[in-house]
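Example record used in the benchmark description.
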Amino acid sequence: MARVKNITVSYGVTKNMGNYESLRLSESIEAELQDGESCTDAIDECRKYLVQKVEADVKILKDELP
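Model output (structure tokens):
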């Protein structure tokens, strides 16, 4: 079986802004796996980070938009 060395995880969300407008925000992260590190664990860790990051960015953008 091939050994996975790098992973890329993406997460995006579309939020309804009202008045037939929406805000789409997505981000990706690439990670290099360390020896013995589980691919599944690394993906979960990256996904958790991205969900928090995207949700925080959406809140900031919603507060800044009229």
